[in-house]
Amino acid sequence: MDREVVRELERRTRTFAIDVVRLTRTLGRDPSLWPILSQVARSAGSVSANHLAVAGARSLKEFQAKLSIVYEESAESAHWLSLLEELGTGDEHSREVSRLRSEAERLRNLFGKARATTRERLNG
Predict the structure, then answer these.
(1) CATH second-level architecture of 3-123?
(2) Nearest to residue 22, comparing CAs of 11, 37, 39, 43?
(3) pLDDT value at residue 1
(4) How far is CA 105 from CA 60, 89, 110, in A?
(5) What is the pLDDT of residues 95-114, one digit of tens each?
């Protein structure tokens, strides 16, 4: 993969994690949302951290395994954000929740495609 693409994905996943944490800070005043906010903050951070770990893979098999984690954490982030969207977070936050859910889904799709391509390479 091109170095610029890797750097852009690192920036994008890091920005996603930071934006989710910032959102959880603003929504944290509602105790009924705390379990969801905790989950989405963890999964978004995991997208970023595990994407960094992909670069350290020592084999194609390990690369695929780490990429699968990034895919799963992206999907989980999209899930929690969609719950927040359905529960409603007030007009002032709804656009940001939707934007982040969309980004989580785009990341999930991107890493899902990369995972499928890697699987094809592994299986010949």
Answers:
(1) Up-down Bundle (1.20)
(2) 37
(3) 59
(4) 25, 19, 9
(5) 999 999 999 999 999 999 99
